[in-house]
Every structure is written in C-alpha cells, then in structure tokens.
C-alpha cells in the first residue's frame, strides 16, 4: 500500500494503469511461489475476476448508452467506466497483496 500511496485517483485512467501494473506484478510473484494446485486455483479465480470486470463495465455502458454501446456515449460515461475498472483493479491488487503477505507470514 505504501508503494501505491502516490497514485492520484483524480486521474482515473492513469490510476487504473498504475494499479494494473502492480496487480500484474503481484500476480506473477504469487504464481512463481505457489504450489501447482494453488496456481491453478488462483489462475481460475483471476479469469473469473477478469470476466466479472468486463461484464460490469459492459453493463455500465449498456445502461448509460443503450444499444449503441460506447459509440453513443459521452465522456462522463467513459470516466465512470474507467473509474469502475480502477476501483476493481485496486481492490483486486490489495486482495492479492494480502494473499502474498500471508504466504510470507506477514
């Protein structure tokens, strides 16, 4: 958390990118250290989480823009979508970081 304290969430796209980079680092660390059975479990959880994030952002676009999708949306909806992605990636990063800490007895 200390490492990510400097992320300015007033800029959602940049914050999303920063959290996503950290998420990928932690995921790779976990995958390099977990036993094979736990790797499979984490990989499946991550796939389900990614699918959930895609579905949630699609739902936002559909609710706000209807059948036209993102082509019919304004910038406010795009910001809402990226803000949602940033929140989800941040939460998942923290979740995986805690898992990593537990693995190392912290």
Keywords:
106 residues, mainly alpha
Topology:
Layout lengths: L11 H22 L2 H30 L9 H29 L3
Cα separation of the termini: 14 Å
Q: Helical residue percent?
A: over 70%
User: Which structural class do the helices and strands define?
Assistant: mainly alpha
Model regions low in confidence, pLDDT < 50 over at least 5 residues: none
The overall average pLDDT, rounded, is 87
Shape verdict: flat
Question: What proportion of the residues form beta strands (DSSP E)?
Answer: under 5%
User: Main sheet?
Assistant: none
Q: For the CA atoms, what is the radius of gyration?
A: 16 Å
Strand element count: 0
Q: Tell me the number of helical segments per DSSP (H or I, 4 or more residues long).
A: 3
């Amino acid at each position: 958390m200390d490492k990510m304290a400097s992320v300015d969430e007033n800029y959602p796209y940049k914050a999303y990118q920063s959290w996503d980079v950290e998420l990928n680092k932690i995921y790779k660390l976990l995958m390099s250290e977990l036993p094979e059975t736990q790797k499979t479990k984490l990989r499946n959880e991550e796939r389900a989480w990614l699918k959930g994030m895609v579905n949630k952002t699609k739902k936002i676009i559909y609710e706000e823009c209807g059948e036209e999708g993102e082509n019919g949306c304004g910038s406010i909806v795009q910001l809402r979508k990226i803000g949602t992605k940033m929140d989800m990636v941040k939460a998942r990063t923290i979740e995986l970081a805690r898992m990593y800490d537990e693995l190392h007895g912290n």
